[in-house]
Design a protein that fits this description.
Elements lengths: L22 H27 L4 H29 L1 E4 L3 E7 L3 E7 L3 E7 L2 H5 L2 E8 L6 E7 H17 L6
Helix pairs in contact: 1-2
Length: 170
């Protein structure tokens, strides 16, 4: 199946079918590694400033290094297994998260705007996030970390589908 496949039946509310780009795992790994840099910079500063506490510094390093490695390996893979999305003629579906998971369904008739977003790391990895703004107090639906070409196709499809559902989007 592909994002251009025929829509699912109106009566079936199943999990979304599509995953983000496999490069999403690389992005999440880089983000985790960057977040651990602060911990290791603080540890290095402590080592330089306080040479009398080497046993504690080694203990912190012995805990931090495996934790950083485990999170950089496990979390991106888990997130990749959880994250899903799908666009049908009737709705936009998304599921995201890893510790706390969120599922969203937005009827096409409620779509107000469709935007793409690409941060610096996303541009390097040729990824895009599609944001579907609806008339909902829950906020926009985000379809994260798609290949740029898939994101562009998705935006085109959503725009065309929403135009056919000329509701008031409220």
């Amino acid at each position: 199946m592909s994002p251009d496949s025929p829509p699912r039946s109106h009566n079936v509310l199943a999990d979304p079918s599509w995953r983000p780009s496999p490069r999403a795992k690389t992005l999440w790994t880089v983000q985790i590694a960057l977040s651990w840099l602060g911990v290791f910079a603080a540890l290095l500063g402590w080592v330089v400033v306080d040479p009398d506490r080497r046993i504690w510094q080694v203990a912190v390093a012995v805990v931090a290094v495996p934790m950083a490695t485990l999170t950089a390996i496990a979390v991106p893979r888990w997130r990749y297994r959880v994250h899903r999305w799908e666009v049908t003629d009737d709705a936009v579906y998304s599921r995201s998260g890893w510790l706390t998971q969120e599922s969203r369904v937005a009827p096409i008739s409620r779509v107000q705007t469709v935007d793409t977003e690409r941060g610096p790391l996303e541009r390097i990895l040729d990824l895009s996030t599609v944001t579907v703004t609806t008339a909902s107090s829950a906020g926009a639906v985000h379809i994260s970390l798609l290949d740029r070409a898939v994101a562009e196709q998705t935006v085109t499809r959503l725009t065309e589908t929403a135009a056919r559902h000329r509701g008031d989007a409220t």
